[in-house]
Amino acid sequence: MLIRTLSVLLLAILVSGPVFAVEPELGPVVPSYGPVAAPPPGSYNLDPNVHYKVSMDVAGVAEFPGDRNRHLESAARFLNMHARNGIPADNIEFAIIVHGRAARDLLTDKAYEARYHEKNPNTGLLQELSAAGVPIYLCSQTAAFRGMAPEEFSPAVTMSLSAMTAHVRLQQEGYTLIPF
């Protein structure tokens, strides 16, 4: 009987998940996107007294139709997690460079719906990233070769000669590329 009781108790603990898990929170920089979990005390972090310039390359798309682009969501997470952990939002300049298949995630709802028969699941995220001061550069070569006109993209998007050009320029301006 004791062994059975202990087995049931152990199974209940395993099924319920770890007791130390924390519920992710949203904001403050990108209020509705980029959920962040609290780190353990003393976690390695950026220096709050340094001004950072960071860029991210986005070429991948969501795994399933109707899902947001996880790379765009990661940009929001980066901004939120550092603001939540002592880095002033003004100390991070963040830029996103988009090319390849991910160009579709920058389309307006109207253009996205014409192609994929649903509204763009990234629209709200793009608006909030833009409101947070994040420039989103789209490779004009990608757009041209995919038959997408500049006016089909969100107002949050700035066309760049190419993704390569945007990376070179941002690097010259002191941006650090997040390598994934």
Give me a quick take on this structure.
The protein is an alpha/beta fold and 180 residues long. It is 35% helix and 14% strand. Strands 4-3-2-1-5 form a five-stranded parallel sheet, with helices on both faces.
Notable traits:
14% strand; 180 residues; Hypothetical Protein Ychn, Chain: A; 5 strands
Q: What does the model show?
A:
- The chain has 180 residues and is α/β, with parallel strands linked by helices.
- The protein has one domain (27-35, 48-178): Hypothetical Protein Ychn, Chain: A, CATH 3.40.1260.
- The protein is 35% helix and 14% strand.
- It has helices at residues 2-16, 70-84, 109-116, 123-131, 140-145, 163-172; strands spanning 52-58, 92-98, 136-139, 157-160, 176-178.
- A five-stranded parallel beta sheet has the order 4-3-2-1-5, with helices on both faces.
- The longest helix is centred in the N-terminal third of the chain and has 15 residues, at 2-16.
- The chain is globular and about 50 Å long.
